[in-house]
Inverse folding.
């Protein structure tokens, strides 16, 4: 075994080494948090950059959509303007055609008034289906024609539409609500209308009956026969289910039958 003896120079070097090692360790310890912070900051920057790219893309998409909407709105506006121009041109042509026809209002007005009078008489003598409402609407039109509040050409169109409605009533079968007078009392009830030839009723308290003409008046008569009540109930049930065609046996309540 060989013994080595340290002299003063070697001892000094050893001491210097011992003194420098802790300083290096402290420097390494200080660098690690900084590096970790730098990594974190870089990650945040990349995240923000990604969000910025996404936001830019969303804005670009939104702007493209707004541009498309603007183009669509401009196209719609152009179509509407074109439609207005076409309506204006059509109106001008019609006005010129009416002027060329030479039909003066003074000539057309008495014809329209006479037509409303004839139609009112027909409604007054016919089946009492919403009769007051129909007559009031017709009288309102007549008053406007007579006072000149409505142009004769327009009045003729409205009167023709009214006549078409009256024709429609003659062709369909339906259930509707209207006011009836039963035993001296006015009340709302369901009425089953068979064109303009027959009217049957059903009150809210379950009474069933027919509408028959007695001279110049109409009478609402409750069915006293059980079989007649069943027949009327069956008709209401069928019409309520939208069954408007078929064979139904009903009490005789035709207009031509008169009072029975």
């Amino acid at each position: 075994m060989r013994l080595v003896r340290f002299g003063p120079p070697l001892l000094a070097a050893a001491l210097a080494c011992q003194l420098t090692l802790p300083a290096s360790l402290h420097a390494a310890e200080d660098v690690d948090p900084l590096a970790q912070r730098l990594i974190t900051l870089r990650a945040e920057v990349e995240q923000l950059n990604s969000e910025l790219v996404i936001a830019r893309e969303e804005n670009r998409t939104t702007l493209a959509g707004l541009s498309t909407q603007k183009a669509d709105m401009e196209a719609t506006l152009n179509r509407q303007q074109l439609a207005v121009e076409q309506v204006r041109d059509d109106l001008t042509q019609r006005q010129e055609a009416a002027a060329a026809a030479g039909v003066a209002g003074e000539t057309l007005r008495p014809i329209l008034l006479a037509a409303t009078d004839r139609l009112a008489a027909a409604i007054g003598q016919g089946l009492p289906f919403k009769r007051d409402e129909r007559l009031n609407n017709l009288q309102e039109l007549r008053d406007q024609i007579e006072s000149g509040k409505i142009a004769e050409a327009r009045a003729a169109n409205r009167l023709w539409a009214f006549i078409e409605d009256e024709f429609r009533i003659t062709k369909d079968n339906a259930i509707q609500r209207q006011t009836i007078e039963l035993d001296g009392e006015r009340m709302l009830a369901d009425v089953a209308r068979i064109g303009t030839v027959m009217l049957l009723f059903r009150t809210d308290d379950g009474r069933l009956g027919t509408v028959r003409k007695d001279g110049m008046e109409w009478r609402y008569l409750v069915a006293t026969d059980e079989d007649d009540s069943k027949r009327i109930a069956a008709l209401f049930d069928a019409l309520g289910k939208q069954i408007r065609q078929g064979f139904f046996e009903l009490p005789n309540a035709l207009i031509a039958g008169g009072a029975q």
About this structure: The first strand starts at residue 173 and ends at 182.
